[in-house]
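Quick note —
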Amino acid sequence: MPRATLLLVEDDPAIAELVAFHFEREGFAVSATADGEDAVLLAREKAPDVVLLDWMVPGLSGIEVCRQLRRMPGTANVPIIMLTARGEEEDRVRGLETGADDYVTKPFSPRELVARVAAVLRRVRPALAGELLSYADVEMDTVGHRVRRDGDAVALGPTEFRLLRHFLEHPGWVFSRERLLDAVWGHDSEIEIRTVDVHIRRLRKAMNEGGRADLIRTVRSAGYSLDTDPDSG
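Predicted structure written out below.
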């Protein structure tokens, strides 16, 4: 099996060296640049499996690099994780709305970063990151297409399975209906936005059978989240 390729866009040499070391040790083929414009060129020449993207880099900002990668057909669906010292909620939301799949604030643990990358890779290349996703009392076998809650099998349709998988890969994150449409139905989907609500209801019905607690949190004017705390956010 070919190694997963990672494009690292980071202008701090010490951080870039540390990140590259940890990912190469995990078997990744790492290419790195400190320049935003160079990052876009590298991704255009050969799309990586995943991008680690610093918010503040010379040339183009990380946000603009993310925006351009999402517009290019070859990289539209490549997972992007933002690396940044910016920890404000508004900045995190801006990064996610631009198309980032996840967001890691500096300083960060290299082990956590590797785990985050493994999580987003499950969506596109599950064999690289393992087969089992879990959260609270929910377990999903992504290869066998099986879901269990507290040990009991849960029957899900294909769309509900993809929705739950996306939530399990990003527990605690709040996703707008638009972002869920992109992640589950695809960027070019012509599905109506309210269709997301229909499938969320179906997912809840299947997951909550038998009076189990609802893990899907509705966030007013924002979207949905997989969260064990109904009062959070």
